[in-house]
Amino acid sequence: MKKLRLLSLLLVLVMITVLVAGCGGTSGDNQPAEQSPSTSAAPSQSPSQASQTEETPSGTGEKYKIPKGDWVIGLSNSYYGNTWRKQMVESFIKVAEEAKAKGYIKDYIIQNGDGSVNAQIAQINSFILEGVDAICINAASPTALNSVIDTAVAAGIPCIAFDSTVENENAYCMDFDFTKYYEMGDYIAKKVGYKGNVVIVRGVSGSVPDQIMYESYMKVINEHPDLKVVATILGEADATVAQDEFTKILPSLDKVDLIFNQGGDTYGIIKAFEQAGRPVPLMSGDNSTEFINWWLKQDDYDTLSMRAAPACGSAAFWTALNILNGEDVPKKMDLALSVITRDMADQFKDMPAGSIAGADWTNDQVMEQIIIPSRKK
Question: How far apart (Å, rounded) are the C-alpha atoms in residues 207 and 79?
Answer without folding.
Answer: 10
